[in-house]
Amino acid sequence: MTTSSQKLQTLDAVLDGLMSRYRERVPDVLGIIDALIDENVIQKPDDIENDHIAFRTMGVPSLGIQSFEKIFLHYGYEKREPYDFKEKKLNAYWYSPPKPHYPRIFVSELRVRDLSDQAQHIIYQYTDSVVFDPVDSLDLDDAQAVDRFLHQPLWPMPTLDDYLTLLKESEYAAWVIYNRYYLNHFTISVHNLKPGYNTIQEFTDFLEKRGFKLNDSGGKIKISPDGGLLQASTVAQMLDAEFANGQTHRIAGSYVEFAERRILPEFQHLPPDQIRREHRRDGFEAGNADKIFESTFTSQTGK
Ligand code: OOG
Ligand code: NI
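Above: the input record for the complex with 2-oxoadipic acid. Below: its predicted structure, written as tokens.
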């Protein structure tokens, strides 16, 4: 029997594994952490509160959200609201964590069936090798096995031609066919940082002063209609990707996000030292997310 505390230990190890690969792939992560230490905003990397992490998947039988979510549901995450991105042809859900100090999780999937026949054909050529849901045969209590699973190819390496054809129709499809389950982003919670850095406006000013490039689709700061969730993100870091046949090409990898969650109106009377996560705006916002996806799109990375 696996107790819930053993499950949380496994979750800790899985999250550590995701973050260490992510730090290597995205130099902006350490760049931002170093800048925060340099300005005495934090003393060490662990002082950063991770608001949420995000993954992308292909919506095909045996994969997609229904497969991927089993991993984190096993560790006690709870499935929350769905989101629908019509133009980008994506579905998404967010998941609330088993304990408040863990990151929320945002998982999206491409509605492959809504793409052109040509794009569907390319995607199925790769994903058809996945006949059974691979998560079903994974021992979710074995942190090393899960870590390996999240960083192993589930389908053959794409050719550059296929990547570029997909890119023309769906930038998201091209991203997933190459980057797979690599962490798409982690998110720095800015509201608990020290004054001068604890609003998204001040934090993005600091980032730009330090030379980090921000996604400006829909404006640099994305604000939910209720005014409670304010988000910004860097432009994805570029990778020298090696494709099948040894061809190489510079493509978008992952990025970093920043979130300010304001205190809900009903808790605004509480003294500041009593404010906890549950007193702030929770969840996500489709209008913000729609623009944040574009952090990996050539419209942003090509600037
Ligand atoms: C996710 C974009 C949405 C958010 O916080 O709303 C998002 C992605 O780029 O895969 O991260
Ligand atoms: Ni996000």
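Notes for the reader.
The two ends are 53 Å apart (CA to CA).
The longest helix spans residues 4-25.
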